[in-house]
Amino acid sequence: MTKKAMKELTDAEIDAIVADAIAHEAAVAGSEAQPPSSAIVWWRAQMRARQEATQLAEKPITIVHALSIAAGVGLMLSLVGYAIAGVKGSAGWLADVTQSIGGSLPAISLTSPWVSLTLTVMLVSLVIASIAAYIILADD
Q: SS3 of 58, please?
């Protein structure tokens, strides 16, 4: 159509042309669309229900898992503190043992900042590795 012919169309005629085009597209889309069978819809609903039930059941397990890890870390820290207190009290005994062996072992000073730093780095690394393992193995 030319511009002149387009200008002569009324609003009702333009609406009719657009409605025909939309109806034609709807007919084409309706003939091409194939909704899934009722068996597939039922299967998908069952799978979704199972997945939701599994997620609901896993929530308390995840909370208990996190609490047990926190309790384990607290227990480990208390044991390390207890062990350090015991070692500090027996540092003189350990020095006597190293001297009685014949002096072949160098004297170990457990109060040295380097030994404390090494033990602290080992402890922090263990805690970070535990947290990283939990994050990696968590199913979210």
A: helix
CA dist 76 and 126 (Å) reads 10
CA distance 62 to 95: 47
User: What does the alpha-carbon distance between residue 32 and residue 28 come to, in Å, rounded to a whole number?
Assistant: 6
At residue 135, what is the residue type? I
Q: Which tokens go with 46?
A: 């069952």
100: which 2 tokens? 């009685």
Tokens 């109060």 correspond to: 111
Question: What does residue 36 show for φ and ψ, rounded to 5 degrees?
Answer: -65, 155
Tens-digit pLDDT profile for residues 26-73? 888 877 778 888 999 999 999 999 999 998 888 888 888 888 888 888
pLDDT per residue as tens digits for the range 7-27: 688 888 889 999 999 999 988
